[in-house]
Amino acid sequence: MESPFKAEILKGKVALVTGGGSGIGYEISLELGKHGASVAIMGRRKHVVDSAVHALRSHGIPAIGIEGDVRKEEDAARTVESTFKHFGRLDILVNSAAGNFLAAAEDLSPNGFRTVIDIDSVGTFIMCREALKYLKKGGPGKDPSIGGTIINITAVIHYPATWNQIHASAAKAAVDSITRSLALEWGEDHGILVNGIAPGAIGDTAGVTKLAPQEIVNQLKQKPLYKFGEKWDIAMAALYLASDAGKFVNGTILIVDGGQWLSKPRLMSREEVKKLSRREETRSRVAPAGLPNSKL
Ligand code: HXC
């Protein structure tokens, strides 16, 4: 789909996207680049990073790839420094790297739980911490009065409880909390905007392939609100937050899921609701003495 944003809205900006080699991270990198940003992507798998850089460059986007693991402070520091060395500034950090798998709480080892917390929550904190020096107002290559932007990719699985996701739910709840704390502290002290994007089920991503096997997908497709989003939907949200359009938005978590997180199973049809509601109203009007009578 064509972007509704002008092609130059990020002209001159430099973005670093963790997990930018594939899935949502790649799509965000592509759209930031198509709107004028230079892009550095970080990922653990060299061949994935290399082919993503190649693809970005084929769109005319100035791009570099850095192999690294967000769990390792030295990798994070090296990535941020390489980005600065190559492009001369850093304006946008997108924390999109994540790890997940399906596991019932009873079957999950402490190390399995810890691994996902380490990638999603600790990794996000490490990247933010290493990038601070370059993102803050007056930092190297930055305007003295305007700081950069951080976008943390989170999820909606921890709003209601989600089966088989105790590890990722805890990890993403921590990511949201990190987003708000940094929005407060770094917004005030350094002029940095920190926001989150919470994607719902997005088709053609590792998240959906790993977490929603085809059998479940087929069941969900019967329910009207359970539409799959596209990676493009998340990239557009990122563009909004990264561009001047989002300059007064700080500490928010933008849910991009078509409203699915609100949905609960419908227990009665509308007709049944009408019938039952009227029956109860009638009954309440003839309530025994001492009980409140409806005035409706
Ligand atoms: C139970 C599992 C498991 C599984 C791993 N573990 N897979 N436990 N069921 N399917 C346990 C291991 O047994 C081990 O614990 C511990 O987790 C660490 O496993 P490793 O394989 O050593 O970890 P590592 O190589 O670091 O790999 C991390 C990973 C892997 C998370 C397990 O899947 C990964 O790298 N994923 C990155 C890509 C990814 O998952 N993308 C999807 C993101 S989707 P023990 O006790 O045995 O030592 C997403 C969306 C969120 O984030 C919300 C969407 C709705």
TrEMBL record:
Listed InterPro entries: DECR2-like, NAD(P)-bd_dom_sf, SDR_fam
GO biological process terms held by the UniProt record: fatty acid catabolic process
EC number: 1.3.1.124
Catalyzed reactions per annotation: a (2E,4E)-dienoyl-CoA + NADPH + H(+) = a 4,5-saturated-(3E)-enoyl-CoA + NADP(+); a (2E,4Z)-dienoyl-CoA + NADPH + H(+) = a 4,5-saturated-(3E)-enoyl-CoA + NADP(+)
Originating organism: Hibiscus trionum
One annotated Gene Ontology cellular component of this protein: peroxisome
PANTHER family: 2,4-DIENOYL-COA REDUCTASE [(3E)-ENOYL-COA-PRODUCING], PEROXISOMAL 2,4-DIENOYL-COA REDUCTASE
Entry's transmembrane regions: none
Biased composition (Basic and acidic residues): 273-284
Chain positions covered by the region annotation Disordered: 273-296
A Gene Ontology molecular function term of the record: 2,4-dienoyl-CoA reductase (NADPH) activity
Protein name: 2,4-dienoyl-CoA reductase [(3E)-enoyl-CoA-producing]
